[in-house]
Amino acid sequence: MAERQDDDYDVVIVGAGPAGLSAALHLARARRRVLLLDGNRPRNAATMISHGFITRDGVPPHELRRLAREELAGYPEAEHQLATVTSVSPRLPENAGLEGSEPAFSGKRGEVGRADDGVRFAVEARGVNGSPARSVRAKAVLVASGLKETLPTLPSIRAFYGLGLFSCIECDGYEHSDKPLALIGETSDLAARALLIAQWSHNLIVFTNGVGRISAGQEALLTERGVRIERRELADVVGDRGVVAGVQLADGELIPVEGGFVRPHWDAQLGYLDALNPNLDGWGLLVTDADGRTSATGIYAAGDSTAPGPQQLIVAAGAGARVAATINRDLIGIPRH
């Protein structure tokens, strides 16, 4: 076994949301040397209060992250740094290019050969907020980098996001019980989301902005539940200090509501994995097995960047813990069940 270098890690974790932080804690407790690279751009940065996390209901998401980082700092096996990962590539052996040497990467999807020291990947990262760039090596990489959100292009919608408009129905539905609500979106899954919201409110209007797709059959089902479909083009969301008062249509009509939900477009931004070509689903999210393994051997994933997409904080944290156990067992070489 080759001697470990200072920039060799058992696991590099990309992303320090609840999935990445949870995985880092569990891997550190398994005495794995872990580097947690944190781009410091959480998807829920606009959310003031989080719900549904046992013992932490009502705590701001940034406070949950702070507490988790504080706990992680107590483990010498774990290192946290502000940095944005720019590439994860197969690591070639030290004698790569010499006659008779074997490549570390086979060129086939999901097949990365082992170097003598077990280090499979080279990870490059750009420093954030004055922190240095990093160039490190890892036996395994856990993708927990979350998603970038793009809201519908309404002039004032960003001012209400996280205050009067939310994206996580399970997280914020309770606080909107029995209010007249809006669901604003331009995607093909609006009907399913509307059915879920209708559990909390019987006064719901789905605004498609002339783009979102709801079939005639879906509309009939929603109408039976008292949900109205508004297909006209939108002008803006109106209100004051984050409190939603209504949705303004392009033709000038104002439809009163008292809050609601928005369905952003989500982008996993996985370009840094291009050299490994992992399988993605139709939404561009990483496909994994039940234990968090992607199609690229040695690459794991947990949290919002995996199918089916955005989850509650407690779900993401649980996924991070589960995948951490998988990584540890795989590094030991314990056969799968």
Question: Your description of this structure?
Answer:
It catalyses: [thioredoxin]-dithiol + NADP(+) = [thioredoxin]-disulfide + NADPH + H(+). It comes from Lacisediminihabitans changchengi. InterPro entries: FAD/NAD-bd_sf, FAD/NAD-binding_dom, Ferredoxin-NADP_redctase_2. It holds the Pfam family Pyr_redox_2. The protein has 337 residues and is of the alpha/beta class. The chain has two domains: 8-147 and 268-332, FAD/NAD(P)-binding domain (3-Layer(bba) Sandwich), CATH 3.50.50.60; 152-264, FAD/NAD(P)-binding domain, CATH 3.50.50.60. It is 20% helix and 26% strand. The chain has seven helices and 16 strands. The strands form four sheets. A five-stranded mixed beta barrel has the order 1-2-3-4-5. The protein has a five-stranded parallel β-sheet with strand order 7-14-8-9-10. Strand 4 and strand 5 (134-143) form a beta hairpin. Helix 1 (18-29) runs parallel beside helix 2 (61-72) and helix 1 packs parallel to helix 7. The longest helix is centred in the C-terminal third of the chain and has 20 residues, at 313-332. The radius of gyration is 22 Å and the shape is elongated.
- Report the total helices: 7
Average pLDDT rating: 89
The total domain count is 2
Count the strands?
16
Q: Label the CATH architecture of the largest domain.
A: 3-Layer(bba) Sandwich
Given as residue ranges, the uncertain stretches (5+ residues, pLDDT < 50) are 95-116
Question: Any idea what the CATH superfamily of the largest domain is called?
Answer: FAD/NAD(P)-binding domain
Distance between the termini: 28 Å
Report helical residue fraction: 10-25%
Beta-strand portion reads 25-35%
